[in-house]
Amino acid sequence: MKVDAAIVGIGNSSFGRGLPDSQLRLAATALKNAIADAGIERRDIDGLSIHLGSPIGVDYDRVAEAFGLEIRYVNQSWLHGRFVTNALQHAALAVSARLADVVACVTAISFTRERGFLGGPSDFEGNREEGGTHGEAPPYGLTAPAAGAALAMQRYMHVFNATSEQLAAVPIALREHAMLNPRAIMKEPLTLRAHQNARMVVDPLRLYDCCLISDGAVVVLVARGNRAKNMRQKPIRIAGMQGIRSGRDEFIFAPRGLGINQQSTRASASRSADQEVFASAGVERGDVQGFYTYDAFSPLVLFALERFGYCGAGEAASWVQGGRIALGGELPVNTSGGLLSEAHVGGWNSICEMVRQLRGTAGPSQIADTAVLQWGTAWGDSVILTAGADRQ
Amino acid sequence: MSIRDRPRPRIGPDNAPFWEGCRGHRLMLPTCAECGKAHLPPGPVCPFCLSDRITWQRASGRGRVSTWTIVHKAWFPAFRDDIPYNVVQVELDEGPRLTSSLVSLSGRRPEIGQRVEVVFDDVDDTLTLHRFRMLA
Predict the structure, then answer these.
(1) Interior/surface letters A270-304, b for 16+ CB within 10 angstroms, e for the rest
(2) Vertex B92 angle, CA B88 and B97, to 5°
(3) Which ipTM did the prediction report?
(4) pLDDT for position A238
């Protein structure tokens, strides 16, 4: 089976902190906006691919019930950034296999109402059997996902002589992007000095290396290619995909071979196995005009760039200097501001931005003549989106 | 668990011998009787050869700091008074790594590569945590 799927509609709620709406209410707003954007009817949606809550949220049946949907395909996982790609890929697979015609990818987050879940006393994640998957060790006071990124970055800095000042290039570039984006929560410029003077959260991560704790929802509608052709928007093709990489040499928030948890210490340049997405999409890495990634913590951007071979092992901290990942640079990253400066909607806010870019409706953030964009994460999964529904 | 309490390890069939070892001030490693390799975290089978024949061997208790962090944020009320506190990963001489903390750091920063040796912290009658002290 070939993947034959396109994004035909996007919608979001407002993004903010301390929003009064329930998660379902946020999701309802995003759903209505996505339906209007696609120019379809609610009854056209017959599939759901969801991960709601933070991390507790409703199941698919409550979503279908609450929104009056008639569903014949469901994929459901946790609200974790690691399952964004997964949810989008399952939507693409489902429409390609004709298990559904139009799948709504739904996520909604109310982090500010449920802060205790983020590394606090209500966060049971680290207490699952043998601990959480970001390196949590609750008896030792390591209870938040940020800790995993900190453990990885600390070693990365030691092994590759990288610095916090170099890392600052990531949040600074993304803040510049957010300042062009009216949806973004963060509006003030971020300087290197402000980054370095900000409080340390979990060494070496300072305040601006950690993403926003925010509320919001996004719905992305995925349809089969031939159906997408007849819809209102220019279809954005899901041109290529590769899945999550996992095993003892992987740690969710580190490059392979960095030596975190049980990883080996055999750091190596990006392998062909890490780059299957390019052949899957029928493009070369050099064709990619913008890179979008899960940036809950700024080191994850470095690790993702290395994963897909934009630079070699240990080179990303230098590679991102000089405006290279900012708009106008060689490879703009997260052009709506990402989780670091737009909002934390798991990463779906960046998927929406990719769609706007490929439609040519990204406004002041528009990359010229956008045709090929990559979503790719530090843990190795990826989707390449291209303009147009047809196979190349 | 009250939110004032410190989280405790979730002890189950696979890792009980590890934490029982700590209570007896012995660092025990699940070790495969077939391929001979030790692994962490404790699992139901050997992750290298999938053998069920796991034996528990006393580890040397020595290793090196492989990475570290210092936590400055009070995610948990129970750790508020400890801030800033260190957490390290230690690569044991036997190979596997575990997450723990250094004692007697007295304001210094941990260093990657620092040789360390296990010590035991009797939290109460039913729980002992492993920690590490720096070797010269």
Answers:
(1) beeebbbbbebbebebeebbbbbbbbbbbbbbbbb
(2) 55
(3) 0.96
(4) 97
User: How far is the alpha carbon of A203 from chain B, nearest alpha carbon, in Å?
Assistant: 5
pLDDT of residue B1: 47
Kindly write down the DSSP assignment for every residue of A179-218, as one continuous string: TT-TT-S--S---HHHHHHSPEEETTEEGGGB----EEEE
Please name the residue that has the structure tokens 């009320």: B77
Mean pLDDT of A58-66: 94
User: How many residues are listed for chain A in this entry?
Assistant: 392
Task: Tell me the C-alpha distance between A9 and B87, whole Å.
Answer: 45
Chain B positions in Cβ-Cβ contact with residue A119 (cut-off 8 Å): 75-76
Nearest-Cα residue of chain B relative to residue A248:
B47
Q: Kindly list the residues of chain A whose beta carbon comes within 8 Å of any beta carbon in chain B.
A: 118-121, 123, 126-131, 135, 137-144, 147, 150-152, 154-155, 158, 199-204, 248, 259-262
In tens, the pLDDT along B18-34 reads: 999 999 999 999 999 99
Q: Which residue of A has its CA nearest to B67?
A: A155
DSSP-based three-state secondary structure for A347: coil
Cβ of A202 within 8 Å of Cβ of B7? The answer is no
Instruction: Report yes or no: A240 and A252 within 8 Å, Cβ to Cβ.
Output: no
